[in-house]
Amino acid sequence: MDVSLFDFVLPQERIALRPAEPRDAARMLVMEGGGELRDASVRDLPDLLRAGDCLVFNDTRVIPAQLEGTRGEARIGATLHKRIDLRRWQAFVRNAKRLRAGDRIDFGAGVTAIAEERDDEGGFTLCFEGDEPVELLLERAGRMPLPPYIAGKRAADERDKADYQTMFAQKDGAVAAPTAALHFTPGLVAALEQAGIGTEQVTLHVGAGTFLPVKAEDTADHKMHAEWGTLSAEVAERLNAVRARGGRVIAVGTTSLRVLESAADDAGLLHGWTGETRIFITPGYRFRAIDGLMTNFHLPRSTLFMLVSALMGLERMQATYAHAIAQYYRFYSYGDASLLIP
Questions:
Q1: What is the per-residue pLDDT for 223?
Q2: Quick one: 131 and 187 in the same domain?
Q3: How far is Cα 286 from Cα 182, in angstroms, rounded to an integer?
Q4: pTM greater than the 0.90 cutoff
Q5: What's the pLDDT at 336?
């Protein structure tokens, strides 16, 4: 498909630079079936879903994956985006022309890494030196990797260490937050449970490429980034039982959705699954494992806007986003939410 079909004009002032306070006070735009759009709040979620439904969250934890260092007199910036093994990460590198294979980068706080090899996109594989776990090194020297549309307007600060982490975050490895789940609070989860709505968790370590616009002119020419995820056999069995009883599986965020769709067979049954996924969902895709999606508002020409267009229809999503812009919804990672149920 022509990528320009997924373009739209977003005023810069609609980009949220901080989350709503409290988190569940964010607005939520509801599109269900062929009905009209409804303006609601995240706090309304227990009333918008049905007893027997189940929300699926991503329990990945964002690591402080953005580093600033030096190689001699040259300043080098690195954003880790894919783990290779215990000590090695692939990284996007700023000022990469000043870096050669074998160079040592000093990131301060006693943290150093060797640039091993350049990749096809101009980044490098970095091997962190020493015996300490890389996670501890990043806690000392790294910063939260805010998306460029926020980082370009303000620097990351202490608030982001909490703001850019969901209440479900348990497993280190993401370099971008599963942002739909940022809206949830313990009080909201308790209200959902009281309403008979279940919750389950999967893992997808979100990569830095998730939110980038597609540069190809046709979707067929886009190379999707790989992300590592897992779905336990026990969770798969419980989710299959939800649908067998007539309940709906609602993915919280496109990251949870990508795990579920990667783990489903052609009949829509989920199975235990672990591995890398490059699933690229565009209009025409047949959804197998989910009955709805709660997600934030996405970038123009992005794979995520293509995904929601596949779920609800491109024309309807363009109309939905036009409504959101006109009604001053807040966009992107720290912005408001939408509830999309085909």
A1: 87
A2: no
A3: 28
A4: yes
A5: 98
For residue 322, give its domain range: 3-62+162-341
13 confidence band (pLDDT: 50, 70, 90): very high
Q: Residue by residue, what is the 3-state secondary structure of the chain?
A: CEHHHHCCCCCHHHECCCCCCCHHHCEEEEEECCCCCEEEEHHHHHHHCCCCCEEEEECEEECCCEEEEEECCEEEEEEEEEECCCCEEEEEEECHHHCCCCCEEECCCCCEEEEEEECCCCCEEEEECCCCCHHHHHHHHCECCCCHHHHCCCCCCHHHHHHCCCCCCCEEEECCCCHHHHHCCHHHHHHHHHCCCEEEEEEECCCHHHHCECCCCEHHHCCCCCEEEEECHHHHHHHHHHHHCCCCEEEECHHHHHHHHHHECCCCCECCEEEEECCCCCCCCCCCCCCEEEEECCCCCEHHHHHHHHHHCHHHHHHHHHHHHHCCCCECCCCCEEEEEC
Instruction: Give mean pLDDT, residues 284-291.
Output: 98
Residue 151 lies in a domain: no
pLDDT in tens, 142-170: 999 998 889 899 988 989 999 999 999 99
| Number of independent structural domains in the chain | 2
pLDDT digits (tens, 9 = 90+) for 21-44: 999 999 999 999 888 999 999 999
Write the CATH number for 180: 3.40.1780.10
The owner of tokens 């294979």 is 101
pLDDT, position 211 = 58
What would the pLDDT profile of 235-254 be if each residue is shown by its tens digit? 999 999 999 999 999 999 99
Give the whole-angstrom CA distance, residue 189 versus residue 260: 21
